[in-house]
# Entry
Amino acid sequence: MINPPNPFVRADLSDLAVHDEKHFLVPVTMRAMVLEEQGKPLVSKTLPVPKPSSMQVLVKIIACGVCRTDLHIMDSELKSPKLPLIPGHEIVGIVVKTGQEVSMLKPGDLVGIPWLGYTCGYCRYCLRDQENLCENALFTGYTMDGGFAEYTVAYENFCFLLDKNYGNPSGAPLLCAGLIGYRSYNMTGPYNENIGIYGFGAAASILIQVAIAQGKNIYAFVREGDEKAKEFALSLGAVWAGYSTESAPVALDAAIIFAPAGELVPKALGDIDKGGTVVCGGIHMSDIPSFPYDILWEERTLRSVANLTRKDAREFLELTTIVKIKTQTQTFKLEEANEALNALRYGDIRGAAVLVM
Ligand SMILES: [Zn+2]
Ligand SMILES: [Zn+2]
# Structure
């Protein structure tokens, strides 16, 4: 596995606050927010700065996004995390040290680190280009330590050079919300002019910018009564915004569900046209109620997406150099991770919550 040729410029450190050489002197300890037990809040800790293995790099973290998946891990909806765990899988940072066998990255490189942290390269899924389903995969901030800390280590081949415009909190949401949204979008099929998006958070707010740049019409469905989310969707260029209980004004070619609400599945199936696709973009969803076969009939497709591949990351991050993605972020200090998670839980975040180190 080697990194592909990369179209991105290396970080121009004159633009970043970490230009000073002394920042590359790595301290012995770091601050981190740690999950010690599922169901409990994160605990602020001082820990040794991790050492990169031969294939890894040590990254000084600039910012790390807070994602619904972090809540699913804390709430035990995702089982068997590494414990104790440093969560966080939308990491923007600077490489400060490289392992002996690292050949592509060097200190000073601006990188993004996503959810997919490692794949084996030899299981049947890896061998058939479905590394997102790898049997031996490791996931950042779930089965490997992640970005709710000042430093982290990551495998070189699972770090992606970032355009220097994203070397700040605005880049963090690209690494999960952006990537999962993009993979979901790719699964909507070739006939996808009119796309419904259910749940208008971070993923939708990034995806809509890519989709509109590619000439699609976006219909935004938001939680009943959430006028602000409707306005937000319209401000980003949605052609229509309504409550998830309402019908779209046209039959949709495809629908993407980001909200973790199973009852939206039959609703979305009812909203799409013959031959259309409903994509469930979340890692966890409440139970899907039973529904009449009629709404699946006529070659409608219902599918989920799981994780991401490095190909998704390369394609999407390349797009972000052309379509300048504006992310709306609400920043929190590292020690405020629990507040950020709670705000996300109660729907009080417009755009994306990001921890800044
Ligand atoms: Zn594998
Ligand atoms: Zn995520």
Notes: The longest strand covers residues 56-66. The CA atoms of residues 212 and 237 lie 7 Å apart.
